[in-house]
Each structure stands twice: as structure tokens, then as C-alpha cells.
Amino acid sequence: MFFGFVLFFLITWHIYPLRYLYLWAWERCLDLKSSSPPQKMPVENIESAEQLETYVRDNEVVVVDFWATWCGPCKKFKPTYEKISKEKKYEDVLFLAVNCDELEEIASQERITSFPTFKVFLRGEEAAKFSGASEEKLKSALEKVLSKI
């Protein structure tokens, strides 16, 4: 069996198009062996009210950042929010972002009056809410909610 494969390979190697197929298959095989597990997406941008409801309902702990494009503190805090979402201790927490300029109905439904506002949901229920771009407040709210699990 092995000898037959080697003979087939040696004969077909000289057929130019098949050479690239072999090389592609070999590279693909090496990529599969060396690939790391898929990374968690740090922050998911919400595009509809239904999507937000689904994520909150289907995940145990969810953090939602309600922000606006014209809000300076929102823009400044975005890299910090993404950094927190990548921390190992929050790997089971889903981090979401809602652009309230595009999704005004969500902002009114969630009674968002200032930006940025953060809500932490535990098993579909609101467990914490605060306004302001504060890393300490966000981590404190997360720790408080995670301690209830």
C-alpha cells in the first residue's frame, strides 16, 4: 500500500498542476498541527436589540458598554475595555458594546442617560450598573457579580 502511494506520488509529481496541490496539502497539514485554539473575540459590537437580548439571555455573565460616537471619554476608554475583556480571569464573561447613536431604541429601552454607561448582567438579570469611564468601577462590578456564581 505504502509503496503504491510512493509510486503514484513520483509519477504524478512531474504533472505540473498536481505539484501545487501536493504542496498546498502538505502546508495545510503542517498548519493544522501547529495552529493554536481560536481566540475569544474581545468585544462584540451589537447590531440590533434582538441580538443584545439573545446574548444577555444565553450567557451567564455579560458586560455591556453603552457608548456614543461623540463621547470623548467613551473613545478614550475603549482600549481599556478591550484590555479588560482579554484578561484571563474574565474569560467566561461576554463583553458587548452598543453604539447608542446607531441604536437609539436600545438606549431608550435600557434607560441610558449618560455615556459611557456599563451594565453587568448575571443569568439574564441586571446585576450592576454605573456610568463613567472607570476601570476600577468596572472591575469592582465584575468581581461583585462573579462572586455570586
Task: Summarize the SSE layout with pairings.
Blueprint (H helix, E strand, L loop, with lengths): L1 H11 L3 H19 L9 E2 L3 H10 L2 E7 L4 H14 L7 E7 L4 H6 L7 E6 L2 E7 L3 H12 L3
Class of the largest domain in CATH?
Answer: Alpha Beta
Give the domain tally: 2
Mean pLDDT rating: 84
Report how far the terminal alpha carbons are from each other.
56 Å
Task: Describe this entry's structure for a reader.
It is a single chain. By secondary structure, this protein is of the alpha/beta class. It folds into two domains: 33 residues; 103 residues, Glutaredoxin. It has six helices and five strands. Strands 1-3-2-4-5 form a five-stranded mixed sheet, sandwiched between helices. The termini are far apart.
Descriptive tags:
149 residues, alpha/beta, Glutaredoxin, five-stranded mixed β-sheet
Task: Provide a concise account of the structure shown.
The chain is an alpha/beta fold and 149 residues long. It has six helices and five strands.
